[in-house]
């Protein structure tokens, strides 16, 4: 499958994010816990490191991810000094309540009424940025939706009197470093897909599930998966659910859609599409992006009035 890039939009997004970064003390990067690497955008790391900003990485939708894989990802991300990674569900108030404390820990030089901690929530579409922001603010301020890139406008919102949220929802497109990234993102609904591509995405997803979670497929759809490939799984779903088009043929499209909906909503169980081990090759060969220029000398220059 091919994912189109829009360099004009990318450059505009990058410029805006770079400007916002100057007025930010801490980056809250929201990732999808089911695919933390594919749902990251290296531009965030590049921009924040350039300004020496610490990062709270939130592996969101942890309620949908495989807990064992999430544990591995946390160990992977928590090696860096200026980064803290936490897995949570932004839909759970008790989980979100941990965020301010973790944020303050990462930027102890801020967090007073005079010098509020300025936080920027960043991430690719549909990872849950608005859900997090709304939960932090405990009221609905940004549109939350199933369609990627629901929220457009940038906002600046006070959280108590010692923290400020700067939100850039949907600003950053995923960086597709490998073809399977695009398929994982499409399966998880971070990028929209048409019906034709949906069948390809569902076939890819079925193959992933066959390799790592065959019991979940059997549990959900009630057929044995031995000897099947991705297409066979989708045909099996169509057969079991009696999805047929006019003329009696199996309705592959409907079965493909069903598999995707079931995965996205967690009906199949808790699933992760990648682990540090499955992405080892990419992690080993990762080349850090080129910095934009010299990092700033001191923190003091960045203070701004409220
Ligand atoms: N299961 C589950 N769903 C979540 C969680 N957080 C967000 N969602 C759902 O994910 C979808 C996208 O959430 P948003 O908060 O709109 O995501 P966003 O990153 O602001 O999206 P854009 O506006 O497209 O940039 C919504 O359907 C949310 O209800 C979570 O922790 N668990």
TrEMBL record:
Its primary localisation, in coarse terms, equals: cytoplasm
GO biological process terms held by the UniProt record? translation
Which residues make up the binding site for GTP?
60-63, 126-131, 170
Task: Indicate the segments forming the G domain, all copies.
Answer: 118-175
* Molecular function as annotated in GO: GTP binding; GTPase activity
What is the name of this protein? Ribosome biogenesis GTPase A
Q: Which SUPFAM superfamilies match?
A: P-loop containing nucleoside triphosphate hydrolases
Q: Which family does it belong to?
A: Belongs to the TRAFAC class YlqF/YawG GTPase family. MTG1 subfamily.
Lineage, broadest ranks:
Bacteria, Pseudomonadati, Pseudomonadota, Betaproteobacteria, Burkholderiales
Q: Name one GO cellular component term.
A: cytoplasm
Q: Signal peptide location in the record?
A: none
Q: Tell me where it resides.
A: Cytoplasm
Pfam families in the cross-refs: MMR_HSR1 (PF01926)
| Protein keywords | Cytoplasm, GTP-binding, Nucleotide-binding
Q: Which organism is it from?
A: Noviherbaspirillum galbum
This chain's function reads: Required for a late step of 50S ribosomal subunit assembly. Has GTPase activity.
PANTHER family of this UniProt entry? MITOCHONDRIAL RIBOSOME-ASSOCIATED GTPASE 1
Which InterPro entries does the UniProt entry name for this protein?
Answer: GTP-bd (IPR006073), GTP-bd_ortho_bundle_sf (IPR023179), GTP-bd_ribosome_bgen (IPR019991), GTPase_MTG1 (IPR016478), P-loop_NTPase (IPR027417)
